[in-house]
Every structure is written in C-alpha cells, then in structure tokens.
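Weekend entry, working from home. Most of the wet-lab plans are on hold until the incubator is repaired, so I used the time to fold the two sequences that have been sitting in the queue since the last round of cloning. Logging both here for the record. First:
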Amino acid sequence: PMPKRVLPKRQKGESARPRKANAALRRQLAARNRDLAESRKQKAAMAEILRVISSSPNDALPVFKTIVRSAVALCRCLFANVFVFDGEQLHYAASYSTGPDYERLLRAKYPMRPDTSQVSGRVLLSRSVVRLENVMADPEYDQRFPTAMGWNWRMLGVPMLRDGRPLGAVVVGWAQAGPIAKSQEELLKTFAEQAVIALENVRQFEEIQEKSRQLDLANTYKTRFLTAASHDLRQPLHALNLYVGQLHRASEPAERGRLVAQIDATLSAINELFNALLDMSKLEAGILESNPTEFPINQLLQRVETTFAESAREKGLRLRVVPSSAWTRSDFILLERILFNLVSNAVRYTSRRGVVVGCRRRRNTLRLEVWDSGPGIPSDLRQHVFDEFYRLATPESDAPSGLGLGLAIVERLCRLLDHSIELSSRVGHGSRFAVTIPQVAARARTADAAVLSGVLGDPAPGKVVVVIDDDALALDGMRGLLQSWACTVVSALTEREALARLAALGRAPDLIISDYRLADGKRGIEAIELLRGTLGAQVPAFLISGESDPERLRDVRASGFLLLHKPVPPMALRNALNRFLGTRNPSAKNVVGEAPPS
C-alpha cells in the first residue's frame, strides 16, 4: 500500500490572513466606489449650477437656489443658506430645508450689519472660513435659531470673495455638534466660487444694459438735437434770405436801414441759438470750470437792466430791476449766464405787465429772483422745464422760438456752481425762478477794469494781424473786418502761405488768429506753434472755430489758447483784439525768414 502523505501543520492564523486581505480590498474598493460616486454627484451638481448661471445672466437668485439645494445633498447637512453683502448690510438671499419657523427668523433678522451673532456676519467680518462645532455652546451666537429647530448644531460658513472684496457668504448647518470635515469645507468653497460667478455675471449684464441705455439715450439726444437744430436754425436763415433779397431791390435809404436792422436782429437770433448749443457742448464735455470771486450783486443786476431793457420795452413790458447792496461769491460770468437765461425766458414768454428782477437776503445766503406775469407753468409740466429741448407751448404766435436749452443750461450751471434753483408758478398769474447763492461781507470797490481799458485808446490801427483759415469766404470776411479797424492783415489758407506773405511784407506780426481745423487734418494749434517757432517769439494768438465736439473743446482747453466760437460777433472779435493788442508784444525778428522746408 502506498504510504500516507503527511502534510505539514499550518501555523496558527495562516488561514485568516487571506480573508482579512480580501476584506480590506473589498473595503478599499467600496470606498473608492463611494468616492467615484461622490465625485460624479459633485460634477453633476457643478454642471447644473453652470447651466443655471448660463441661462440666468441677469438674476443670481436661481443660481443661489441651485447652490443651497446641492449643498444640502452633497454635504449631507440639515440646511444651507446664501447671504449677499451690499457693502453695508447682509441680505438673506436663498435657503433650502430650513423650515418655516427658521425662515421667518431669517427674514426678521436680515438685512443686518455684519456682527458676531450670525455665522454670516463673522464670515464677512473676517473674510475667511468660520467653523462652529457647537452652536449652543457659543454665547455670542443668536440662540433663537438653534432653539427654533430643536437641534444642537454645528455650522460652517465660507465667504464669497471677488478680488478680496466680500460679496456674501454661504452657510450650512448639521443637526449634531462635532468636527467638520475638510472635504466639506472645500466643497462649500467651490459653491461660494460659483455664487461669485453668478453675481459677477449679473453685474456685467447690468453694466452692458446701462451702457446700452446710455447709448440709446445718446442716440435719442442726437436725434432730438438734429431735429431741433435743423428746424430752429432754418427759421432765421429763411428770414435772412428774404431780407437779403429785399435789400438788393431796396433803393430808399429808410427802407435799406430797416432791412439792415432786421438782418442784424436775425443774425442775433442765430448767434443766440449757436451759443445755447455751444453752452450745452461745453457742459457735456466737462470743460467748464468755475472761477469764484467776490463782487457786488448790483453789478450783475445793472448788466441785466442794460441788456434787456430795450427788448422788454419793444414788447410793451416793464422791466423792473431792484438794486441791492449785497455781495456774493460766485463765478461772475457763469452766474450772469444763469440770470440772463432766466430773464430772457421771462421776457420771451410774457405778453403783459412785466418782469421783476431782484435779490433777497436769507441769513448767510442771497436769493436772486426773476418774477414774470406770463402764462405760468402747469404743475404737471414743471418737472420737464429743465430738460433739454423742452419748450412750453405759448399762446403768443409771435413769441420767439428757441432750442429749449435755456433752462437746461441754467440747471447744469447751478449744479456746477453748487447753487440751488427753485421754481414756483401759478397758471394765469406768472412764474418765479429763484437761485440761492452765498452772501459775503461787502468790501471797498477797486477801480473798474473797463474804465482803465478805456483810457488806453484804440490798439488796433497799424498792427499786423495774421489770419489763417482754410475757408476762403470766412477768410475774406475776416480780412475785410480787420482792415476796417485799420489793421494790416496777412491772410492765408495755410501756415506756410502765411510765413511766405510775412516774409514778403518784411514785418513781424502783432497777433495770430487761426481757425482750429485747417486743411489736410491740421490743427490751428500746430499752425500757431509753427509760426511762433519760425519767428522766434511768443506772438499773441487765439483760435476761432465752429467745433462743438467735446473732445475738440477739451483739446483746445488743454492748449491754453483762447477760443472764439463761430459765428463770431464783430464786438466779440474786437474785444479779443483789444485784449491781445493792448499788451506789449514779445520781441520778434523784424524781418521774417523763409518758411521751413516741407
């Protein structure tokens, strides 16, 4: 018989080792499967949040609701909340699984300034993650909340940050006290980042909407401007054509004189329209700056009386200007523009009785008031009278037209000067406009500059004036007017032509006048600098232009040159001439050299 095979005895525990290894492998596999399943859930949740962000660019609330629902599911917590910070207060935005009692507490508590009674407040104050492992043991926490739920909580809050600036907080809570896993903190940070993306999307969407609104407003403004300007500029131009046609056929001196007066009045109306448009362009460009000085208010009131007495008399109105001994501190020129616009409107829309202009003292302030006995302004229209291009209907068929910019300019200038303006009116009785300005102590008057300038005599005769303009008709008109004032005029279409004619004349100029926009895209600023460089002297100079584009106005302002706006009234041109020719001209070469090569 075969011998029995004797097997060696197994060591104790050898049979248990494979079973333990298999169990460990099964546990590892199960943990890995759980992690994979958890990862898939998280990825699905993030994808869902991104989908909601994409479909709701103008509202973050749907995103917040998706975040709190996902947070409760993935963090296996009792509830989740989102709070938004507006820079001052925290606002309750969204929650999930909180229950009606808890939500009522939230709505009663928020909005609130960040403090330590809430996890959201602590997150905002620290701009960092906040952990509360036992809410009931924290004396600073508002205990109404865990009491309402009947559980001993642990809570986790993470900030919603953009460039380090807090936008809000995401807060979750569990029913039992205890430690909080790091993985849950990282997951909640991801949710907070998604909330920030949603808020940033809404902010960018609102910015785009606002820019679109501004663009639409600008297009509307441009359309209204073109419509109003086209109509209101055509009216006086049409009248001007008719008067010129009559002037050609008029032979009687009296008739010719009447037509010249009518042409002059029509040109004044055109100048007024252009000045209103220019004022609005300057205000839109932001290039107007106030230059406050102290002056007697009566100086301004006298200017009003001198300027408007005749136009009021022609309408059969009485213009009464009440003198005042008060002094103020403001920008004289801009305040004068405000008062002139108010008085001009009062005279324009009043057909009986008259207009009263005066000044009342009110403690440390003065009230410049313009009263009229016109038709009055209905209460439902008073909010519109300061809008651009808004004109009240007037029963007087012969009332002068305008662009409807006078009161819009008044309102903006008052804002610039920090002066308030009030309107009160009764239909059928008239209106009162009042501008409140500072009052200062009176002081001794200095010699009037106008009186001093009067004794200097006429500085224009014999002076050499260079005029550069690429428009031949404008150039001819300027040459004729300057020659009528006994100036020696060197007129040219370009700066190089001006240099050549100066060389032929053999004299240095006393003044340079250039149009802002010249041929081939050149600017008058460059033309003046070229002439000055060639002459070797800072010859006095100023610009004239028909430009009203804000960017061009800022360019001229930066250059430091005086700018006269076309159409330039002869008196404005003469005042500028007196201003520049009345000062000593810096030394220049007597004989001008050749123009530099092109």
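Second, folded right after the first finished:
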Amino acid sequence: MDIARQLDINPSTCFNILRTLAAEDMVEFNAMSKRYSAGLGLARLVEQFVTQGQKIQLAKPLLESFAAKVRVTVTLWRRIGNDRIVIVSSAACPTDVRIDMSEGQRLPIMMGASGRLFASQLDLESESSREIFEKIRRACPADEVEVSFNASQSALTRFANNIIHQNVAEEGLHISVRALLDGRTARASTNKTDDDALRRVAEQAAASARWQPRNPDLLPMPGKQTYQPVERFCEQTAAFAPEARAEAVKKVVARAEKNKLTAAGIYSTGVQTETLLNSRGLIATHRQTKAEFSVTYLNGGSGWAKGNFTSVQQLPVEELAESACRKALDNHDPKELPPGRYTVILEPAAVLDLVGFLFYDFAATAVLDQRSCFTNQIGKQVFGENISISDDAYHPLQAGSAWDGEGIPRRQVQLVEKGVLKNLVYARHTARKMKAEPTGHGFLLPNEWGEAPMNLVFAGGSSSLEEMIRTTERGILVTRLWYIREVDPYQKILTGMTRDGTFSVEGGQVRRAIRNLRFNQSIKEMLKQVELLGPAVRATGEESFEMVVPPMRIANFRFTEVTKY
C-alpha cells in the first residue's frame, strides 16, 4: 500500500486509520480505483477552525477565570457527528493535583457527563436520527426494522430538614431496535451511537428474533402516518436553572421555619424527546418538558402536596406549599374514629390513586384474556350516571405523544358515558382479533400487555371542595392514600391507608384531625355512589401516573381499621 510505505507504518494500522478518517468524512474512498482522496469533512474542519477560532479564543479568558474561581479544570467541547466529541479549548485547575485534558482530545459521545449531555441534545427531529436509523437498518438482517429513540435530560433539587441537601442532573440517550423476521420479532437496546455499537445492536435484535417462535398475530410494521400536533415543550422549563429551583425551595423552607415546621421534598425539571422510525417510512417525533414539585411539612402530624405539569409556569409551587403547610398545622392531636362506612370527601390526589387501578381494565387485551373487571360488560351500566371517562391525549392538561408504541395515531376514545361502558382501547393486533379499529394505544412490541389508555380524563362537576364540606353533615376529608393493593381484580376491591391529612367533617365544617384509617373498598361500587363532583384537574399522586380527575364526595365508603398514628 503506497500510503503505508511512504509513512513507514504497518499496512493494517494504516488501513484502520484510513477507515476512521473515512467514517469522520475526512477522506473518501473510491471503490473502483481503490484510492483515497480528501473528503468534504476536511474542508468543513478547516472552515470551522477559520470561523470558530476567534470565538474559541474569546472564550479562553472566561474558561481560565472560571477554572481559577471554582478550582477545577474547565473544558470546552464540540460534537463531531453523532458519536464523537472533541475538546476545542481548556483551562487547567490552578492546583498541584488536577486533571489535565489536551485540546484536540476526542471521546465517544457517551463517555462521561459532557458526552451524555451532547447525546441528550441530539436533534432527533433532524437528519441525526435518520442517519442513525439508516446505519441500523443496513446492519440489521431482518425483513423489517423499527428504531425507537429516547433522549432525556433531567435535574432535581432535593431538600429535607429545611435545607437543600442534594442537587443532581442526568442526561441520557436510549436506542431500542426491533427486528421483524419471518413472522418473529425481538428487540435489543443500546445507549451508544458509535458505528460498532449500532451494528451490534442491529445484529442482536435480528439474532434474538430468530430464536423466537413464529407469532401468528404479528402484523407488518405500519407505514407513514399523519399526526395531530400537540405542543408540550416549554423553553423556560427546558432552561430552568438549579438557582431558580433553589430560590423556589428557599420560600418553601421559609414558610416552614415561620410556622415551626420541618419541610422535605423535591423540585425537578426535565426534557424528553422521543422518535420512532421504521423501514416502511414511518417517522414520529415528540418533544416535551416536565416540571414536578412535592413537599411534606412535618410537625408531629404531616401535610403533603404535589404537582406535575409540562411547564414551570403551570406549576403552582407556592400554592401547593401553602396547602401542605395548612394541613400540617391542622393535623395535630388526632382523635380516633371507629371503622365503618362514612361519607368521604376525596381530594384529587386520593381520587387519582384509586381510579388509577382501573386503567388496564379498559384494555382490549385484558378483556380478551378475561383479566378485566369489565369482561363481557360493554354496553352495560358499570358506574353511576354522573361518571363519564375518556382517554384523550389532546386534552390541554395531559402530557405525552400523539402516537403509540407502533407509531399509530392516538384517538380520543369515550370509554364510559353516563356510567355505561362504551368502548375499549385497541392495539393493532388486538383490534384485528376482536374485529375492531386500532385506537393508537399499543405499547412497544413485543410485549405481553397489548395496550392501555394512558391519558385518562374523568369528567368533572361544578361543586367546589368547600361546597362538598359545607353540605356534609358527618364525614371524612382525605388528602391522599398510600400502600394501596388490589384484593379482588374482578370486583376491583382495593385496600390501603389514608395519610398526610385526614380530618373529620361535622355539621358542614372540618372539625379535627383523626387517626389514619385502612379501607377495603370496591372501586366499581365507589363510582356508583358518587354524590358530588368538582372541576377536573391534572392530579399527581404516588400510586398512579398523572390523570385529569375531579375531587369527589362519595357515600358509604368502607373503612375497616384504625391505625396507630
């Protein structure tokens, strides 16, 4: 080889170097002439140094100043393609013991926190994901190929004992490949984007598929789809700094100290990008932000509140803190009420964590397998006439994408109307079995669950929480529930306990804190006994994912045991 001879290096070493340069687009290989020539990447590299050099020099004093201030080595990185990052400038820590990293040093993009930050910010709507997809598709010996990308960036501020004790940030990229081969399918995953990793995951998906039995219900992958747009990305939330979270927590703690309470909780923000592509031309992308706040105030008793939205502008941190603080102050010297059936007023978080156990019962697969409490009940009255439930991914208080695990557009489905079970949700293969239309609720294949409604919306009413209390002669007000377990899946009997603010209501007023109670209650029975509904809100709990539900006043709710606290 002429190049190896002129450079006086081993031919195999020379070949590996040239192959790397070709992958970086620095040289081009002509398969006909078997010769290498300068590539466009080399021209782009020269252009970048000419146009970016001055910017890098301007940044150098800032890096040196910051390195001196915080006494750590500071590096400035640039991404090269989808799988490499390079140091373009650095400033060493002014101490005897330090980390030195040389300019020009390259690393795989998933190596270290800096690389993972770049990976999480890959624009999966652009050519980046398509380039990665094409590499996987070419390397995967299968009839059809699907690739799912999930890039995430999250940050969390945690506080306890009235101080912030933890601030963490995490970035990541998850790539999942599904191969469909001769009536078989399987999936393999990676968090790396270099060519070798993409080749390995593609080959693993195909190899795993060959070991699977043929699935007579397996369908070809869907082709290109059209999606209704949903806007769930907030620039302010994506850029929300730890200082801003700390400032909000400072006010929460100040409220605790003013009232001689102890505060604990979290404030987190994040960005998630999902992209799904397949070899039949399907491309689906969704990007959204998330902001979540939870606080517990303690003073012998406790008070709790939590919120979760797609925007920090929607997240009422001070309102949540005020509510939790008030409950903690009221929740002292609890009295004991005997177990029995009571009128109960459930705040939205308590409603959520109960009705959340119903979500999979609306899945066609669960009904087909006779695992659902709604088996053979379509068209029948299952709840009271004031209960209507839909699954609506486009509701303004919902989150998530407009497509399911196979890329099928999500439909708005009226599940229950005036207490009558009207519809189920269907994945493609379940719909074919049951002679129905797919509704866009399937999970990534292969899976054993089939589908489920992930954007449940309960229709609300006009009664405020205050009105429910004012019109209750004797009852119990419940903030939230925990440690909920299913006792009977067909009657939907659940057991669990109240916590963080349980109060007796007498003569239309909240009278006193009471000891927490254990309940054994059928949710199907409960939703036949709802007396009043409040406006539906986006609720967040600890036992279920977020839904849109109202507060409820319910007759004859069954408490079976008093706890010791």
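Plan for Monday: verify the second prediction. The chain has a mean pLDDT of 90.
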